[in-house]
Write a structure and sequence with these properties.
The protein is mainly beta. It has no helices and four strands.
Length: 76
């Protein structure tokens, strides 16, 4: 974690992001599944998980662990 506005998720915290698919064939983009960020014994559902906007359009390997990614939490 290199940047965070959450007190429960300070900078430097090790995090894991997992994708849970819906397990069925779907047509709507919001029905495919959810990303969940886990850290420090807690979990947050993500509304967005993507590479930083400044990297859009560049050639990259999404499997690279060192890639910079942005996660936006669902607040509520």
């Amino acid at each position: 974690m290199s940047r965070s506005d959450l007190e429960a998720l300070p900078v430097g915290t090790a995090v894991e992001v997992a994708f849970q698919d819906s397990g069925r064939r779907v047509t709507g983009p919001g029905e495919h599944g959810t990303y969940t960020l886990r850290a420090a014994g807690r979990s947050w559902t993500l509304s967005r998980f993507t590479q930083h906007a400044s990297q859009a359009g560049q050639s990259r390997d999404d499997r690279t662990p060192a890639s910079e990614w942005e996660a936006e939490l669902i607040v509520g």
